[in-house]
From TrEMBL:
Protein name as catalogued: 2-dehydro-3-deoxyphosphooctonate aldolase
GO BP, sorted A to Z: keto-3-deoxy-D-manno-octulosonic acid biosynthetic process
Documented EC number(s): 2.5.1.55
Keywords attached to this entry: Cytoplasm, Lipopolysaccharide biosynthesis, Transferase
Pathway: Bacterial outer membrane biogenesis; lipopolysaccharide biosynthesis; Carbohydrate biosynthesis; 3-deoxy-D-manno-octulosonate biosynthesis; 3-deoxy-D-manno-octulosonate from D-ribulose 5-phosphate: step 2/3
Subcellular localization(s) per the UniProt record: Cytoplasm
Any one GO molecular-function label of the UniProt entry: 3-deoxy-8-phosphooctulonate synthase activity
Location of the DAHP synthetase I/KDSA domain: 6-249
Lineage, highest ranks first: Bacteria, Bacillati, Bacillota, Bacilli, Bacillales
Matching InterPro entries: Aldolase_TIM, DAHP1/KDSA, KDO8P_synthase
Organism: Paenibacillus rigui
Catalytic activity annotation: D-arabinose 5-phosphate + phosphoenolpyruvate + H2O = 3-deoxy-alpha-D-manno-2-octulosonate-8-phosphate + phosphate
SUPFAM superfamilies, alphabetized: Aldolase
Family: Belongs to the KdsA family.
Length: 268
């Protein structure tokens, strides 16, 4: 049985809007990491390839985006994560990224998973909205088939009818049974896919309560997209948490996690 890791955070803006924003957010996340003594991974996508509309903002692209993420590593010391969408992206992305993320819509793309896993880098696979938690074991097996056991599994909600997502908290227990850390994506779980017609909407007011509930249920970390001014963000603004609210929420989550871990230890 592979032991789950210490409680951790993956956070950052949905997409790289510009270098200044990325450095602003990453420096604040580095400060929070030290203040709360919690491992933080900086997340921002260099390309949002799975947008609802061809007119949606996608980001600077892989070449420029990776250069910006490299600056984050050098200036803040934080490890960095971004999505890879095609096998051709894996090699250049793995030269910079500490964690390669498989987007939810691509979690069944065998060639992409195998190519990313074969790098030996840590892989974060986001559970598809269309996937039952027990079906993610097939994804785990694909990653393990390359000899890579450096894996995170992220829950981000399940489709419930049209333009709606719900979180089945049983999925945390089910997926943790395989021995890998399970992360809760609090901000995408309250997304309203396609809710604005050509873009997604969201209900960020529910993020804090879902975070508290998920941590109390038992997860190994949180995935929270943040932005200094979400209402002006170029992608996924309605479901991102204001950066100024993150530290307070994390303090609550850490206290709940400490109680939860104590209860888990007593039950062993």
């Amino acid at each position: 049985m592979i032991q789950t890791s210490e409680f951790q955070l993956i956070a950052g803006p949905c997409v790289i809007e510009d270098e200044g924003l990325v450095l602003e957010v990453s420096h604040e996340l580095a400060r929070i990491s030290k203040a709360l003594n919690i491992p933080v991974v900086f997340k921002a996508s260099y390309d949002k390839a799975n947008r609802s509309s061809a007119e949606s903002f996608r980001g600077p692209g892989i070449r420029k985006g990776l250069k910006i993420l490299e600056k984050v590593k050098l200036r803040t010391g934080l490890p960095v994560l971004s999505d890879v969408h095609e096998t051709s992206e894996v090699e250049p992305a793995s030269e910079i990224l500490d964690i390669l993320q498989i987007p939810a819509f691509l979690c069944r793309q065998t060639d992409l998973i195998l190519k990313a896993s074969a790098t030996g880098k840590k892989i974060n696979v986001k559970k598809g909205q269309f996937m039952a938690p027990w079906d993610m074991k097939n994804v785990v097996d694909k990653v393990e088939s390359t000899g890579n056991k450096n894996l995170l599994i992220t829950e981000r909600g399940t489709s419930f009818g049209y333009n709606n997502l719900v979180v089945d908290f049983r999925s945390f227990m089910i997926m943790r049974e395989w021995g890998y850390p399970v992360i809760f994506d609090a901000t995408h779980s309250i997304q309203i896919p396609g809710g604005n017609g050509t873009s997604s909407s969201g209900e960020r007011k529910f993020v804090p309560n879902l975070v508290r509930a998920a941590v109390a249920f038992g997860v190994d970390g949180l995935f929270i997209e943040v932005h200094p001014d979400p209402d002006r963000a170029l992608s996924d603004g309605p479901n991102m948490l204001p950066l100024s609210e993150l530290e307070g929420l994390l303090r609550e989550a850490i206290m709940i996690n400490n109680v939860q871990r104590g209860l888990e230890h007593e039950s062993l």
